[in-house]
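Students often ask why inverse folding is considered easier than folding. One informal answer: many sequences map to the same fold, so there is more than one right answer. In these notes we will look at a single instance of the problem. The structure comes first.
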């Protein structure tokens, strides 16, 4: 029996690191955990998948480690001192 299309979609999102699909996957995992008829095994499975999705999603939403350009002071409108008259 082939895996469900949702599971395949989540696996593809994790593999491709597609932010939009990862957000959907995170929502889907949380939704599956809140279903009243969910068995304990299902809860463990979907919470594990949720952790995988969050692990892939976290680095992409983190602040970039690239060096930032420093702003120069004394530039722009109003920064030039006027001569006193």
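Output (designed amino acids):
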């Amino acid at each position: 029996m082939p895996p469900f299309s949702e599971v395949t979609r989540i696996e593809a999102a994790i593999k491709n690191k597609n932010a939009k699909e990862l957000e959907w996957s995170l929502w889907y995992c949380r939704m599956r955990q809140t279903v009243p008829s969910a068995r304990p095994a299902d809860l463990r499975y979907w919470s594990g998948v949720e952790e995988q999705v969050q692990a892939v999603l976290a680095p992409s939403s983190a602040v970039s480690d690239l060096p930032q350009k420093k702003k120069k002071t004394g530039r722009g409108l109003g920064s030039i001192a006027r001569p006193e008259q």
